[in-house]
TrEMBL record:
SUPFAM superfamilies given in the database record: HAD-like (SSF56784)
Lineage, top ranks: Eukaryota, Amoebozoa, Evosea, Eumycetozoa, Dictyostelia
GO cellular component: mitochondrion
Residue ranges crossing the lipid bilayer per the database entry: none
UniProt cross-references to InterPro entries, sorted A to Z: CDP-alcohol_PTase-I, HAD-like_sf, HAD-SF_hydro_IIA, HAD-SF_hydro_IIA_CECR5, HAD_sf
Annotated Pfam families: Hydrolase_6, Hydrolase_like
Gene Ontology biological process: glycerophospholipid biosynthetic process
Name used for this protein in its record: HAD-superfamily hydrolase
Source organism (scientific name): Polysphondylium violaceum
Amino acid sequence: MTQQQQEQQSFGIVFDIDGVLIRDGVPIPNATKALGLLVDQDTQQPKYPYIFVTNGGGFSEADKAKKVSKVLNHHIEEDHCMVAHTPMKTLVDKYRDNDVLLVSKSHKTSEHLAQVYGFKHFTSLQQYVEERPFLYPTKYSTFWTKGVASEYDIKKSKDDQLPFKAIILLEEPLDWGECIQIIVDIAQSKDGLLEKNFINKADTQMIDVHIANPDISYGGEFVLPRFTMGALTECIKTLYKIQTGRDLIHTFYGKPYKLTYEYAKELLSNQLKKLNHQSPPKHIYAIGDNPYSDIKGANNLKSEGWVSILVKTGCWKSEFNHPEIPADHYVNDVLEAVELILRLENKNSS
Ligand SMILES: [Mg+2]
């Protein structure tokens, strides 16, 4: 086969994880077999480029790759795995000289991800409130618990803090009330340097807001869906509008947003280079179970070679393709999806 023919046939695969390969921490039948078709049986090295993209977050790509590798008994490299906040790595340079507020479940998680990604100056949500407890009396007021006037233990003044330039939501925090209050406070200031009797109020929004994972809800153990980051964002937007009269300007990461698909394409192109293909993949197959994220995002980029494949093993189980967001292909499971791709690309799957 000539180099030109090889280039023409270059393709990549993007797997969603939950509902496609794993459900409740257990492999979906045929998942490991499907991945086995993509590696060399002797060396176990990938024959074709593929990556894993989840809208989950709060963990590093290395941690996620390790966990998924273990469940599926299939080795996954760290740079073959994307979580919702992976494309936020590109923000490190932008905010090199400023402080950023990082929001996640704990100070420890934010600190870990800041180190992994390389954020030089950062403050976690939990740290920020602890240093300025007057901002969230619901938690820190002694009047409610002890019946005495609060004497807040203030640990930080605006003079020993770098100005904020951005708020970055990495994952849903445990205390939504605290998170909403602080984000609305900081987003209406010029610099996030808040003191008990002081806020440098802005006339227009001067603090950038970046949010990983736009999903309103996810399927939990309970029969009704559970709210997550997208729902929290709706609360923040509503209260920011009430306070300022303005719409909150924000950037979403994760599926179905373009930034995530562009980053995924870059990772696949890097793998292709290792396999001696110099140009980016001509076709990228996105296998997912969620029409509103996995399929919608790929359908939006059809003109750039993306092809969507919906499986029946996750949140969409109907006999028929989704009526409003139809995938290019609708198959039973991930094994059928991979076999279909190899057929479409004229590769022998045996
Ligand atoms: Mg899924």
